[in-house]
Structure formats: structure tokens, C-alpha cells
Design a protein that fits this description.
alpha+beta, 10 strands, 5 helices, 225 residues, six-stranded mixed beta sheet
Amino acid sequence: MSGEPGPRRRQRPGRGHRRGRAPRHPADGEARPVFTAVAGEVAQSLDVEVRGEIAETDVKVLGLAALKGVFSSVVEDQVSYVNAPLLAAERGLAVRLITESDSPDHRNLITLRGALADGSQVSVSGTLVGIHQRERLVEVNGFDIDIEPTDHLAFFTYVDRPGMVGTVGQVLGQAGVNIAGMQVSREDKGGEALVALSVDSAISAETLAEIEIAIEATSIRAVDL
């Protein structure tokens, strides 16, 4: 497996909605838990950005769905569309729903963008592709990717240099974790890079820690959906 990242490639989902009716979208699915896992905490503010043809429909439910997903992973009680706004108000979480019909790279795109307590930002973008409208994650923290959200995902950020992808594969292989899919994205040669993985089984905390040390990761997150 080559350590060089492949070309940045984005796919356009097919038309799957009627005007005036909001279709299913990743804010209703896997983008929410991925956002929470990548953030590592509850964001202080949350923007739900809805772009493309879908923005011409009533998308308020997508804002509620995103909010519900943010709290579902961190609150013991059941979270619903009704109590999610109350939970946000109790925690001082400011939420904005932003719509924009212009979407240069995808027919429809949902981005969850949050500000954390330390001032840093986290973002996750998703879309639907193909006849069967399958979910795709197409951006994480500014890095372009194209990966299907499976049961087990991982995201590692590190300084781009030779051998890092091979090191990740070797550590996972020794731990008996099979890689189903991998995407590597980087800002510049030798700059910050992100590897996004879908794997067949959960990655243990010990294995994650081993990878963190081996590649000197600046951020390491695992998501079990």
C-alpha cells in the first residue's frame, strides 16, 4: 500500500428529493457521531451548514438531528428532537442553521462545524452518492476525504513523511485489525496530514496509543458507530 495520498476526488450524489421536501441526509445518520468523536468533547457552538439543492427545502429537522446526535453520545438519558434544544440551552451551546444553495463540489452537502473550549474548530462534512444514496464522509477538519462510514472508523493526524501509512498498517495488522478502506489527505508535502480508516473491528485503546507514539500523531480518534 502506497504512503502517497491519492488524488482528491469528490463524487456528486444523484437527485433524490422532491422540491419542498427535505430528503434523508448524513445529518440524520453517521456524520453526527463522527463529529462528536472527532471533537472529543461537546462543542461550545455548532453550525449546521446545508448546501446545494437541499437548501431550497425545509431543513430545520436537519439542525435538530445534528443537535440530537451531538448529545446522544455524551448524555446518559435518551435524547430526542424535543429535549435536544433544551440540553443545548442548559449547556450554553449556541446553534446556527446556515443554508446556501451554491455547492460547487456536491449536489448536496451537510457540514457540522463546532468551536471547542480551547478555541479550536472541528468540522465533518457528509453527502449522499449513487442511486442508493449511500453516505460518504467527504471532509474532516479541512481535509478532503471520500470514505463510507462503516461500523468502525479511525482518524489520525500527523506530520506528513515517508513510512507513516505503512506504520499504521503494521500496528493494526499486529493487533489483528483488518483495514477495509483508507484515505490519506494532506495540506502540503511535508505538512499536516490526515489518514482516515474504516476497519472491520474496533481498535483497542492500547493499539491506538501505540499508533499515536509510532507516528507521533497530533490527534487520534476512533469511532464505533
